[in-house]
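sry for the spam today, last one i promise. struct tokens for design, 215 residues
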């Protein structure tokens, strides 16, 4: 596994502090899986991960359970926890779920978006257009999609959509990296124009069309 800065942990730390370690492990492993550094079927060994992060097995187990909940890992009898497969059927399911949930989230979000939230979305849109590589573009694209639904007031839906976008990112990076080209995203711009005009129906319509183009 590729090295990352180890985070020391000591006995007697609070559960909140241990959760912070779990968050760090989760985020690093998620990033490696999405980028393809950890391929499908790779075993996620608790002892190796614990050594890398200089921690006990407890936060590692927490992180692995959360990876499973995200759909990025599976626990197999007698084979341990491994990176989940990601096939065409899974990608299709993720696309359909995003098509169902994301426009609904935007419909609830748009009337409640604050100016700082709109500024965050616009910043992400511009960063997407200016990205020079697919990794930067993908991160900013995810940031944009989460920013425009930030006002929906439904934390469970936001959490579900964040996980779905991680899965979309994994599929995109695995299958479209060589075809990616720098470009200005007209759909993103149209969504921001609709947000500025407080035109909910137009914003939702453009987003639905945009998501329907997912591979």
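last one done:
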């Amino acid at each position: 596994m590729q090295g990352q800065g180890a985070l020391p942990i000591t006995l007697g730390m609070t559960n909140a502090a241990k959760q912070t370690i779990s968050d760090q492990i989760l985020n690093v492993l998620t990033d490696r899986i999405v980028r393809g550094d950890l391929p499908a079927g790779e075993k996620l060994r608790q002892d190796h991960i614990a050594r890398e992060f200089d921690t006990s097995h407890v936060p590692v187990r927490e992180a692995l359970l959360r990876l499973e909940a995200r759909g990025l890992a599976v626990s197999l009898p007698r084979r341990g926890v491994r990176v989940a497969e990601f096939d065409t059927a899974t990608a299709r399911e993720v696309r359909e779920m995003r098509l169902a949930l994301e426009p609904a989230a935007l419909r609830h979000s748009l009337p409640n978006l604050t100016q700082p939230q709109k500024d965050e979305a616009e910043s992400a849109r511009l960063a997407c257009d200016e990205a020079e590589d697919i990794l930067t573009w993908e991160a900013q694209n995810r940031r944009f999609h989460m920013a425009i639904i930030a006002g929906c007031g439904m934390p469970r839906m936001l959490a579900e959509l964040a996980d779905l976008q991680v899965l979309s990112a994994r599929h995109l990076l695995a299958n479209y990296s060589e075809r990616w080209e720098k470009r200005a995203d007209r759909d993103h711009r149209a969504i921001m124009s609709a947000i500025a005009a407080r035109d909910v129906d137009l914003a939702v319509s453009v987003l639905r069309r945009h998501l329907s183009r997912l591979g």
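The CA atoms of residues 103 and 205 lie 8 Å apart. ok im logging off now
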